[in-house]
Amino acid sequence: MKPSYGWVVVGAGMLMTCIAMGSMLSLAVFLAPLAADTGWSRTGISTAATLNFLFMGAAAFLWGMLSDRFGTRIVVGLGSALLGAGLVGASRADTLIEFQLLFGAVVGIAAGSFYAPLMAAATGWLEERRNLAAALVSAGMGMGSMTVSPLAAWLTDAIGWRSAMLSLGCLALVLLLPAALLVRSPPGALGASATPTSAEPYPLSSGEAVMTPQFWAIALAHFACCAAHSGPIFHMVSYAALCGLPAMLAVSVFGVAGLAGLGGRIGLGLAGDRWGAKPVLVAGLLVQALAVGAYLFVSGLKEFYALSVIFGLAYGGVMPLYAVLVRDFFGPRIMGTLFGAVSMFASLGMALGPWAGGWVFDSYGSYAWLYFGSFGIGLAAVAIAQTFRPRDQLVLGHA
User: Which of 45, 56, 132, 354 could form a disulfide with 112 if both were Cys (CB 3.0 to 4.6 A apart)?
Assistant: First the structure.
């Protein structure tokens, strides 16, 4: 049997989400040297990360609709060009507001073009292996913190943060534009926005779908999940350094969490194939909440490494499961639009943590309240996820 072209799409998707999300999340590495060089507050710099997720969320919904109508390739191609331009522009910023707009708004809008459209394309190509396809594309995001963040740290030490950020922008253009040419929409995907018929297995339109309790359970659980882990992720390097770890070791803790997240995405994705996406999601969210709370009690390198493995497995592992729930309940025809909408809520959650962590540190000189609050929000995500009812349960309930 001829290998499915879907695996090429999955490979391109992994590379693109790795570079895009890794570049965006590299602000966590740039935070301390940027503040020291410019005199800008950590709250002000962290606001750029908050803008990242706000703009990424709003853009993800629009990019998802465009990919359903016009195809994935043109969407990720435009996003690649915009990402490189945003990073290059941010590296030249002279004022905080200029930096916030370029790194926060432009890079955020660009980053929103990758995840939802590529998830829809990969799962559409590989219908029989969609859990694995979703897990692998999502794994690219975990690889970003494992690869791009250490590269950003090394470049910053060698040539300064401005030249390092400029280099990341050039790297994004060189790698992502050719990768975008490899992406193809799955057969029959274009024109998916046409009005469905009642005979289809997934007859809901996108407007009808967003009014269902299932959509809101997925969207709000994803929001709370991301709100719980975004602050601890973004401020992990700063927190580890505050606990006495040298700069590169603090970055390595961040990298270990990213590596664990890579394994978690694949491992929990495969577990979802066996036991179902919902129970695996609930279990992963519970472990995530407990791990966030445990950061209040660690200080040594070995403790940070051990907890980062557990935290990374949990927060990384739950990420592809939301896409699987959307695909299984609403079908492939409107997945780009629906998962783009879910990703918008996730991005709003991600926007809270970086700003909250910066505000907590500037106000109290400690990150304790960040981890305590994130623990509570993580438990809320567990409760919300348990309200989701899979399609087969609804069918049985109406029989």
Answer: 56
pLDDT: is 30 or 53 the higher one? 30
Mean pLDDT of 12-19: 92
- The Cα–Cα gap between 327 and 154 comes to 39
How far apart CA 342 and CA 221 sit, in angstroms, is 10
Q: Cβ(221)–Cβ(285) under 8 Å?
A: yes
CA distance 108 to 97: 15
The pTM of this model reads 0.72
Q: Which of 317, 302, 165 is nearest to 240 (CA)?
A: 302
What stretch of H or E contains 182?
Answer: helix 161-182
Question: What residue segments make up the domains of the chain, in order of their start?
Answer: 7-185+206-393
Tokens representing 284 are: 């992963």
* Tens-digit pLDDT profile for residues 207-256: 888 888 899 999 999 999 999 998 898 888 888 888 888 877 887 887 78
Angle at 121 between CA 117 and CA 124, to 5 degrees: 140
Fold (CATH) for 7-185+206-393: Growth Hormone; Chain: A; (1.20.1250)
Q: What percent of the chain clears pLDDT 70, i.e. is strictly above it?
A: 92
Instruction: Give residue 116's identity as a one-letter amino acid code.
Output: A
Residue 124 confidence (pLDDT) above 90? no
Helix/strand/coil percentages in the chain, nearest 5: 85, 0, 15
Query: Which residues lie closer than 8 Å to 305 by C-beta, 6 or more apart?
Result: 253, 256
Amino acid letter, 58: A
113, 75 Cβ separation under 8 angstroms: yes
Cα 183 from Cα 6, distance rounded (Å):
9
12 phi/psi in degrees, rounded to 5: -65, -40
